[in-house]
Design brief:
alpha+beta; 3-stranded antiparallel beta sheet
Length: 157
């Protein structure tokens, strides 16, 4: 059962709601993600935990509305690498497509808080950073293969 209104004090409810939304056949949320190979190789919680995390990533990547692409270490630093991690939120048209969608917003977390950036020049800079990473990232099939190889390496350590 998906939580309808997640509790602001329970981050697991928000995570569960996102998980439900990404796999809901009624109203799926499209999600394109680009992940650095370094993140996939950094063992957090031990090999068993990492293996489970990577398998979950493969599982989610099988959904039709989810794209998982890996930026290999061999690609070097992408343009806009100083941006760190961020999310570009695009919104659908409302009222059955009769009303214009809300403008896109960039969401970026930092050590002391989060930023929501909605000025056209800010959005453009982050869209450029996203395109820079996309140009260097493996395609979805190659990314799956890399994640599977890393899982295999973790299981043999």
């Amino acid at each position: 059962m998906c939580p309808r209104f997640p509790s602001p004090t329970d981050p697991t409810q928000a995570r569960d709601q996102r998980r439900c939304r990404s796999s809901s056949p009624r109203m799926p949320t499209n999600c394109g993600s680009q992940v650095s190979e370094a993140v996939l190789r950094r063992v957090v919680g031990g090999p068993r935990v990492m293996t489970a995390q990577l398998r979950r990533l493969l599982e989610v990547g099988d959904l039709a509305n989810v794209s998982v692409r890996v930026l290999p270490l061999s690609a070097g630093p992408p343009p806009g690498a100083v941006a760190g991690s961020f999310v570009i939120l695009d919104f659908p048209a409302t009222k059955g497509g009769r009303a214009a969608p809300e403008p896109s917003v960039v969401y970026s977390e930092s050590l002391t808080g989060a930023l929501y950036l909605d000025k056209p020049d800010e959005l453009s800079a982050y869209e450029g950073a996203w395109r820079g990473v996309a140009a260097l990232a493996l395609d979805e099939g190659e990314s799956r293969d890399m994640i599977k190889r890393i899982v295999g390496e973790l299981q043999h350590d």
